[in-house]
């Protein structure tokens, strides 16, 4: 039997031909074939949305198709496509209408997800309206409360017909397509519903259910093809979790190994901190490691890890639920668990595992004391067993990959009233705290403040000629190497300028700075604040809506909530210097006319 290939990290593998997506389904009013065609187009948008997985850090997955003339059910052709590559890059809707050109006029746009507002100016909505789109079909409303329903109301307010799956369009095949939309954005949906990151448990076992021999030897249970697949799955996550036993026994590197792209953080969970002094995970030259442990455990070893650059986080009581809630607060969307049976059982019992990937190798190892993938769950009858949902099977080399959800993906429709609706009903209720405003990811309520936000800026070069930079981050990272009399430094500037996303621009700049410090300009530490200041001032001067958004925060403290960057960000517990927030507050004061400062240097006195 042929199996579908290229399945998403989140999506089930569909064991049926693609043509089945377009088969007629009986619907009221004879609209079965129409529904099938539109469902297939929204599914295609969901497939597009998943294209950046593994190459950039997890983000809202958005895909868009523009169908000319007759629309989805009326015989139109796909005129343009697009997908969001990374936070801070061009919206899928903008890409699709640019690709379609004049064929947008009178056309229909199909999206897997309601547009978000990561620009602060409804760029996606404006692109669809200005292109002449007359109808928009949306697979699901945006899960995040501050974005939910905003674009739908804006589009309808501009006179476009908007049909939302499960609301305006209903049938069995519509329901299945909407489910595909929820699956491709499962991390975002869980973030909105459960306050923990979307967590996937992966393990490889023999046919008799062992993850190692009685001796503990486990290399290798699964095939090379299966291990390559695991590298791909890792790249789709913010972080990988292992336990202390895995570090002691296997000494893993936990790299994605896909030749570039996103590198997930490594997290070690250990009650006692009984870990070896020499371990691959203590090498943080390419990617960071975080060790979470019980408060007070091996203080001397904590100092040793800190000297290696490894972050240690203590918990009063170490358990998977508290750890996942902590990483949720740090902005993580997706976590990949590759731990042993004891920690796996604890994570499942805590309710933080949402999906399972089990690679089953056609091998038998036996052994009364050989470990199994999941330890004691306290179940004594088969009726207590946990049933997987949406179970899928895929042959990977000689192995069989079995996957399924332990918990159904939450259905967030409808949520009434929303925060905005509540505020409209009762003006004394404000949806957001105005005293301290946090921003970090571009999809946060104030995400347009981020240096990663997708706002091109015009900046003069050394000769006074103006050049366009895709984002503030592109400009900032490239200027580490500007003016250095070395062809390699000059090449770095051009490479960073042409990077596809601010995430990749940052990755390039930081990597070269770490490995080739001689290419960094000698005055960088003294000028970097002013470089960022000038770029931010350009951004908030060019875009009136951003200027208005910044001025609207008057009286509030602005905090860049990065838990990793203690210079530009505020840190995990406010220990960061928050220079990005300070610069924005200084700019706000200047724009309000409260100060005559014209240079970012004065912030150093703060």
TrEMBL record:
EC number per UniProt: 1.1.1.193
Domain CMP/dCMP-type deaminase: 36-163
Gene3D superfamilies for the chain: Cytidine Deaminase, domain 2, Dihydrofolate Reductase, subunit A, YbiA-like
UniProt keyword list: Glycosidase, Hydrolase, Multifunctional enzyme, NADP, Oxidoreductase
Pfam families named in the record: NADAR, RibD_C
Record flagged with keyword Hydrolase: yes
An MF annotation (GO) of this entry: hydrolase activity, hydrolyzing N-glycosyl compounds
GO terms for biological process, alphabetical: carbohydrate derivative metabolic process
Name listed for the protein in its UniProt record: 5-amino-6-(5-phosphoribosylamino)uracil reductase
Source organism: Eucalyptus globulus (Tasmanian blue gum)
Highest classification ranks of the organism: Eukaryota, Viridiplantae, Streptophyta, Embryophyta, Tracheophyta
